[in-house]
Predict the 3D structure of the following.
Amino acid sequence: MKKIYMDYNATTPVRPEVLDAILPFYREEFGNPSSVHWAGRAVSGAVEKAREQVAKLINCSPAEVVFTSCGSEGDNMALKGTVAALRDKGNHIITTGVEHPAVLETCHYLEKNGCDVTFLTVDSDGMVDLRQLEDAITEKTILISAMWGNNETGTLFPVEEIGRIARKHKVRFHTDAVQAVGKIPVDVQKAGADLLVLSGHKIGAPKGVGAIYIRRGTRMTPLIHGGHQERNRRAGTHNVAGIVGLGMACELAGQNLEQNAERMAHLRDKLEQGILNQIPDVKVNGHRTQRLPNTLNVSFAYIEGESLLLNFDMKGVAASSGSACTSGSLEPSHVMGAMGVDVALAHSSTRFSLGPDSTEEDVDYILEILPPIIQRLREMSPLYPGNK
Amino acid sequence: MKKIYMDYNATTPVRPEVLDAILPFYREEFGNPSSVHWAGRAVSGAVEKAREQVAKLINCSPAEVVFTSCGSEGDNMALKGTVAALRDKGNHIITTGVEHPAVLETCHYLEKNGCDVTFLTVDSDGMVDLRQLEDAITEKTILISAMWGNNETGTLFPVEEIGRIARKHKVRFHTDAVQAVGKIPVDVQKAGADLLVLSGHKIGAPKGVGAIYIRRGTRMTPLIHGGHQERNRRAGTHNVAGIVGLGMACELAGQNLEQNAERMAHLRDKLEQGILNQIPDVKVNGHRTQRLPNTLNVSFAYIEGESLLLNFDMKGVAASSGSACTSGSLEPSHVMGAMGVDVALAHSSTRFSLGPDSTEEDVDYILEILPPIIQRLREMSPLYPGNK
Amino acid sequence: MYTEKVMDHFSNPRNVGEIENADGVGEVGNASCGDIMKIFLKVEDNVIKDIKFKTFGCGAAIATSSMVTEMAIGKTLDEAMELTNAAVAEALDGLPANKMHCSNLAADALHEAIKNYRENHS
Ligand SMILES: Cc1ncc(COP(=O)(O)O)c(C=O)c1O
Ligand SMILES: Cc1ncc(COP(=O)(O)O)c(C=O)c1O
Ligand code: FES
Ligand code: FES
């Protein structure tokens, strides 16, 4: 069966060039970069090269890049590391209601441990209100944590303006850029970010590696204490192959970034238009212009997400859903909830996320199989007025 | 030039069988195990298989295994997760002065944050005193953290007795078994451990993956909050390839564990005897019988470790040293210090650690090149009495 | 980690040894590192005619010892007093940042030896 992967926001295959780059580091160059002998030396150069590749993609200096094991670790480090380091300054954090659980759950944990957290609301496009943000800042505010691009809807926050507000009030600004990096230009200087998190497996590097940008001079308490790795900012033997892969993936992402974005946006728009043209009672979730070029989130009214995904799956199509039924949690997507999408439509929300290997044929195939699937499921649905 | 790797305690090459096992997970089976579609399904089975392989090696149930990114993360999780979860019970931790920095530095951090930490002393063999341990327990003691095998000297703690004392006083017992797992039989039931940490790259799996055993019913606060992975105990997209590799490495380690240990001990003993027979003024550091089978730590009096390692390196031999001059820190090895080894001899300490690929020829080669190197360096040393 | 020059001076150190009845001896130790460096001088007409060293220390310590002896030989005592650790490190094409302190040892030992000579011959 034809397999069509439309879930690049969940994870991506390792790019062939990345796989080639990492293979020597399993058996031939297997040393510990902290070692002084031949086995360590070869490897420590490779780690530093990767640091430069990451730094170049996000426009910072290599010394500001700290390697982590994933995006979640980075977000935990950004939040907990800031709270621990700035305890004397204040205990108030501002974030948004649509962040990834790595930020939200960490904020809930911090709330139980003496922090005040303001969760900014978003409008029906998933957009924050900058006025509301600025009004939320108090004397005790130590951190604004606002994601660059939303993983479910693709909505892009105005990070440059958020950064400006943060600087104006001398508040630290962290942005979870896990979904933005590699898909659109990400520049920590322009964004005025003090902390930025990215994750390898979203951009063609292996799972199990990520990075956090820590602006020079930003006081941080480590999340993982121990050896002297990463200039005492993150202990643990380096995941050398993963780091080399992340570096290569960043380099590849930087090449033709804008052309690739345009190509994906074109395919995504074709999918969106095709769906809207063919299927009634469909709602697009997320901002129509301020949106990741690869992401399309649509609610097919009267249909529950998991049942749709299972039907897709039987036809070889991999996508994802904001339905609680797929996630094992009770509540449907908190992102849909924050946008005021009603519960039934939240359960119907379906995310198609494209990647560099997505093709016009993939889109055509989905547009071909989708209408009968939707029709069949709707006919089964007690909510569907067409059945009444 | 011949390359002889004698630094397996620092890290190991990925075993060929492990590399074969992980390769399909980069491009073919690249899904996110949390996804419900075909790309996720294949992969979640592989993660659960690896969990069983790890569980089997340390004799626990798969549900008690949580995957991490490294040994350091595991140790941080064990300590910080216990302190946060048992805040109502007490704030006293007992550990030893010879733990790995992942434990020691975390303890120092916790001390600054309201914990009392007792650092048990060790004798000149690096052995703890069980009486002293038991005496240190107070009403407020929530955790004993004692390593299974020491990374520098190989000294093995009497974990079963420590576990018994912990159970008797209803105190939680964590053991850092990063160096023990795969080298000697490790059984969490026999040891009576509640928490046990291991790291993949020490046993032929890739760097960037590890695991923590958490006995069923042990309350723990996560170190990394976020998604529902690992039953809410560790968020972050699974490092699938790394986890599969760790599983395979555990399976391989379990096969012929005792024969391999005997083989390494034989080679290690030959190296030790050869050194003692040929070179005067040599001190073996660590316990003579309670010792990892692959580890030999010797101080060559009058010689500084890094200069010895560089000479080894020029002959293709990779080893490591407890000298501050190699580590970039100011103090020489805290392990040597805790054992009462004087500063000059601590600077002279050199660790040879063998692995499954070590051969008799490797040992012979080292025994051949060692005497002239030692002689030359001693002649350069202002401390060497033979020169006076 | 180390430059070729450092490795050259480390593997073939110049002027290793002691001078019997030296005119000046300097010994310095860095307590934190536990390293010790000793320099022996033979002086004629205020010029360093011969110089030898002994060092217990890392690769950088041995290489800087060797280099400082090469740089000092033939110099007047005043010129030799001007030799800085930075100059020694530079002559070795640089040292890793965490090894710069090792080069202090070499220059210090030389200066100590000269002071010792001056004390003995004043
Ligand atoms: C005893 C011990 N504990 C913990 C660690 C840390 O493991 P990792 O480097 O995987 O973080 C090591 C290895 O360096 C070790 O030897
Ligand atoms: C916006 C966002 N932040 C954080 C994460 C967490 O990244 P990781 O799965 O690498 O921990 C993800 C991915 O799941 C994400 O989409
Ligand atoms: S209907 Fe089955 S999980 Fe929601
Ligand atoms: S002599 Fe100790 S670091 Fe160089």
